[in-house]
Specification:
This protein has about 150 residues and is an alpha/beta fold. The protein is about 45% helix and about 15% strand.
Length: about 150
């Protein structure tokens, strides 16, 4: 019957709402520390996210050790696949670095991104990361990646 299917939909909505973690983007923007690990000095997305209200956004070109202040302070880390992880001599560069950070700090959210569309699709880092996206994605996609990673 129609009323039965309507109540089923309402139950599904209630379940979805109660299971979803409540994320207030405005609060998140002020409180969270976002770190881009990218050797591209002209990377504009970190500046764009700042303008979008993510005020604690910064970029470093690489990580020399996992206890580095920027890493320990960051809540969400965007890790480029290429050109980073070299300081710690990871053979898989950014993928190795992302895996090491997630291993040491499982509570941190790791978002892997790259301008390279092909690559190691089955690398363990891609499975352990909280999200991944293309470096050429629109800025709003980066914000969506943050919110998606937070809801995990």
């Amino acid at each position: 019957s129609q009323s039965q299917s309507q109540s089923q939909r309402q139950n599904i909505l209630i379940n979805i709402q109660s299971n979803a973690k409540k994320i207030n983007p405005d609060e998140a923007k002020k409180k969270l520390n976002i770190l881009f690990i990218d050797d591209d000095k002209d990377l504009k997305i970190s500046k764009i996210l700042k303008k979008m209200g993510w005020i604690n956004t910064s970029r470093i070109s690489d990580v020399s050790n996992l206890e580095q202040a920027q890493v320990t302070k960051a809540d969400i880390l965007f890790v480029d696949i290429q050109g980073v992880g070299k300081s710690m001599q990871f053979s898989d560069e950014g993928l190795g670095l992302a895996l090491a950070i997630k291993g040491r700090y499982p509570e941190k959210r790791i978002i892997i991104y790259s301008s390279q569309e092909d690559g190691k699709r089955f690398h363990d880092a891609l499975r352990r990361a909280d999200y991944s996206l293309s470096k050429t994605s629109e800025p709003i996609r980066f914000e969506e990646a943050i919110l998606n990673a937070l809801s995990k």
